[in-house]
Design goal:
Elements lengths: L4 E6 L4 E4 L2 E3 L6 H12 L3 E6 L11 E4 L3 H12 L4 E4 L6 E3 L19 E3 L3 H7 L5 E8 L3 H11 L4 E6 L13 E4 L4 E3 L5 H26 L1
Parallel strand pairs: 1-4, 1-6, 4-5, 6-9, 9-10
Antiparallel strand pairs: 2-3, 7-8, 10-11, 11-12
């Protein structure tokens, strides 16, 4: 059997306003980097596509640095055909400025600054349209209606499972995670708060199970 190839995205994206400012979010990339490192230790082939973080890429992992959502979309499309499983831990900005300023925007005399925004590509949705026999895993960080929103994303983006989490004070960085794993068949698996390392180990077990099921289904068709 060939080595299973995981394609992992991590961190935030940055959408420029001008040469010195950008729109972004609070993602630190911690979970994605831990997951990539643990996957490599367990023998997976790993490609990590990451937005800007202060983290050191894990050894032995193919690392691709990006800044914007469009750049991440381009790299995910490029490597998607060779992966067995895409795990989208990245917090991709939903919108970008239509036309970033070439020079620094000055405060001037105006009290307000109006920005024209346009939607970024929905990377996971686009990969879900072309997934075939690949495994797709997404994340849903919510402030309200956790299960409802996560289930909607899972269905819309054609995922195999989604990890839902409610926003808390320690969500970002080294804080703990309280994951709710939802499968496309409707099964929900709740978990007590755990470290991101502990959750990464658990998620890799779930991926092992999904990979085995996919392989078994292929063999049964031959």
């Amino acid at each position: 059997m060939k080595k299973v190839h995981l394609l992992i995205t991590a961190g935030p994206t940055r959408e420029p306003l001008d040469p010195v400012r950008f729109i972004s979010n609070y993602s630190t990339g911690t979970l994605g980097y831990i997951l990539a490192e643990e996957a490599k230790k367990e023998g997976y082939s790993v490609t990590l596509i990451s937005g800007p973080t202060h983290l050191k890429p894990p050894q032995g992992v193919k690392f691709i640095a990006i800044n914007t959502a469009s750049e991440m979309y381009k790299e995910v499309k490029k490597h998607f055909s060779s992966c067995d499983c895409l795990i989208m831990t990245a917090a991709v900005c939903d919108f970008r400025v239509v036309k970033p300023a070439r020079n620094k925007i000055k405060k001037g005399s105006s009290k307000n600054l109006i920005l024209r925004l346009v939607k970024n590509p929905d990377i996971l949705y686009e990969m879900g349209r072309r997934k075939k026999d690949k495994i797709l895993i997404g994340f849903s960080l919510e402030t309200t209606n956790l299960i409802k929103h996560a289930q909607e994303k899972l269905k819309k983006k054609n995922l195999d499972l989604i990890i839902a989490q409610k926003l808390g004070r320690n969500t970002f960085g080294e804080g703990s995670i309280t994951p709710l794993i939802i499968y496309r068949e409707g099964v929900l698996k709740k978990s007590a708060p755990c470290s991101k390392l502990g959750f990464s180990k658990r998620l890799l077990k779930e991926i092992n199970t999904l990979t085995f099921k996919k392989l078994s289904a292929k063999l049964s068709q031959k």
